Structures are given as structure tokens and as C-alpha cells.
Amino acid sequence: MPQDPVAAVAALLSHPALAGRKRGLLVAVSGGADSMALLCAAAEAGPRLGWRVHALHADHGLRGEESAADAAFVRGWCRAHGVELDVVRARLAPGAGLERRAREWRRACYASAAQKKGAELVLLGHHARDQAETVLLNLVRGCGARGAAGMRPLAELGDGDGDLAAAKVLLGRPFLGLDPVGLRDWLGKRGQDWREDASNADVRFARNRVRHLILPELERINPRAVAHLAAFADGFASVEGPSIAPAGWDRASLGRLGAALKRGRGRVDLGRGWSLEVGSGRSRVLAPPESRALEGPGRYVWAGWSFSLKRGSPGPRMVAEEGGYWFSADLLNHGLRIRALRPGDKLAPFGFAGRRKAADLLREAGVPAWERAGWPALEADGRLLALPGARRGRGFEVRPGEPALRLAWRRPEPDAADLGMDKAEQGC
What we know:
Blueprint (H helix, E strand, L loop, with lengths): L4 H9 L10 E5 L4 H16 L3 E8 L5 H17 L2 E6 L8 H20 L3 E3 L4 H14 L3 H4 L5 E3 L13 E3 L7 H10 L16 H16 L3 H11 L15 H13 L1 E7 L2 E6 L2 E5 L4 E3 L4 E5 L2 E8 L7 E2 L2 E5 L8 E4 L5 E2 L8 E2 H7 L4 H4 L3 E5 L2 E5 L3 E2 L11 E7 L14 E2 L2
């Protein structure tokens, strides 16, 4: 797993779902290694992208002098680095349901502190092993697709319907793709200490039993068990809809973003048509075009994809072939366009009865969850005709002897810089 906490935080802060929100950022920090890595990375990446960084330490009051020492440690770091800190304390009674009660209390603290600081994003330090633990716990307790998807990189704080745009405060988890050993190594190279919570070793708690007893056994069966559990959760992410889809930054995008942060200026291609402008302590996310009309034979660029329409004569396979789909030339008279996939889109696959969710078809074609929300959809007469590179739908099939059009495509290159939407070449 790539281990660049600063780039991971910067990528989440650049997520399109955060565009237009207040630039107040609250970091939940316990003093442990994961949260200290998060605080260090947020303090470095946040101001460069125009975010005001605040910290929150929640003291559950369960560990006596150790809890007080945790708070003092966090307070000392924040004072030394100029980060404003709020410390909230509770006196939770030990006993049944402690984990649940502690979590509910923390969530209430996040909401209250976010309102106080004018923040609309709270960052949490959950990492890949935390995700694996969550998925396993959800499965053994009984869950549907929502539970199988585990934790999300961006989620609503509260009990809303999952609409990020309408949520008052969001929870962000930029480290879900990072390994905790790598986070500790990163802190060590920076000379940054952290606190150890002895209660994390107490196997009376269900999560600790999974962490210390079950996951190690699974890793003896397959050393990549944690990565596979994360991929399993990711496979269910699209069930909840694109509004809470993962951020989807690949290693190349993270590298470009990290380089721009070090320069302090520039425009970064984040892939699939998205770009980020950085400069003067501010940032701006530029979205890809929603749609592009295909008016005739020629070449087109949309969201980093390259498309071409050419007249021709199909071979024996008159519907689809590698790298292209064939259609009747009459298609051009029916409002042909390329657009972004929308929540709830359905396609009638060629050769099958009925319609199916486009997200399911993309998953079956091996498209990762983080790419599905921005996948191109071919539309005519207001209905979906194809998911280029994944599935051809029914409609406008070529009949023997009639004029035909071939739609071909090329997916974005990792470093593609051409994000325009203008037709590049007219002809044929």
C-alpha cells in the first residue's frame, strides 16, 4: 500500500463533494499513532489548500492519569505547531455497551465542535486494518450491502439519508487505503512521538478480539487478507450511490498532487476529467463537463477520454468488437451524446432481456468502484445505449446493407493533460 499521509489528506480535501463548503477542518486526535499522523498531515496539507485546521481531543475519562497525559501530549503538540485545540471530557461508566456509548458521545462532540468552529468536515484516522475489522464485525453481526461496504472515505455525520450535498457536517477518512505500520514508520522518520492506549490490547472488547486474534489468523492463510477485505468493501460501495463513492485517487494522482503541494502552485490533472488548481494558499477543483454532443463523424475529447466516430462497414460481428461498437448511422438523428453516469442509470444489455443497473454492469466488467461515478455513458433519445469499454446496450443495431458508424474510444492516460471538451477534429 502506498504510504504518503500528506498526499492522502490532500486528495480527500480536494474531493469534488467538498467544493463550495466552508473551509474549516476539524481533526479528531487521541494522541495515538494514527491520529497523530493525521494531525501532522492535515496541518501540512490543509493550509496549502486553503483549509483552516482545528484539533479536537475527546477524553472519555476511563483511564485516569493516562487519559490526562494523552490530553497534555496533544495540547503540547498543538501549542508548538500553532493549531487551535479543544479538549472535551466525559465520565463514561464502564459496563455493557461501552464501545457504543463512547462512539455516540464522540459523534456528539464532533457535531458540537464543528458547529462552534464553523467546520463542515471532521477528519478521522481510520486506516486499512480498521476497515478490515469493521467489515468482519459487520458481517458476523449480520448486515446488508451498507454494512459490507464498511467505512466510507466521506460520510455524513448523523443519521441522514447519505446525501453528502445536503449534510451539514461530513466525516472524512483519508487513511482507509494506508497501512498502520506505514503510518508509524512515517512518524518515526519525522521524529514524531505518539501515545499508546493500553486498552487497545483488551480482548474483552469485540474489535480488539478481531484485531489481535482473528485478523492475524486470516493473514496466516493469506498475507493480503487486509487488502482483500478492503477490496471486498469497495465492491459494495456503489450500492450506496455515487454521492458517497470513494475519493478514488490512484497512486499517480496522489504523486501529482503531492508535487503540486510542494511547489505551492500549479494545475494538477487528477484523472477522469477532474483537475485541481493550487496557488496562494487556495485551491479550486475543476469538474469535467457533464455531457458532450456527438454531432457527426470525427474525434472528441470528454473528461480525459478520447472518442472517435467513423463511417464504415462492420464485419460479421455487427454490434461490438474489441475497442468499438457499431451502430446504425441513423443514430446521429437522435441526439447522440456522451455524458457522465448518473445515479440510478439503467442499461438494456444487448442479447439479454430487461434492464440492469449500470453500476452493476460496470462492476461485472471489472471497473473499480471509484471510477464508476465518472464513467462515460452513450445516450440517444434520452436513453442509455452503451457504457464504452464495458457493455453495449440494445438499440440502433446495424442492418445488412445500411450505413453504419463505429464508436471507438481510448481511456485516459495516467498523465493526460488534455481536459477539454471541444471536438478536436472534424472529418470523415
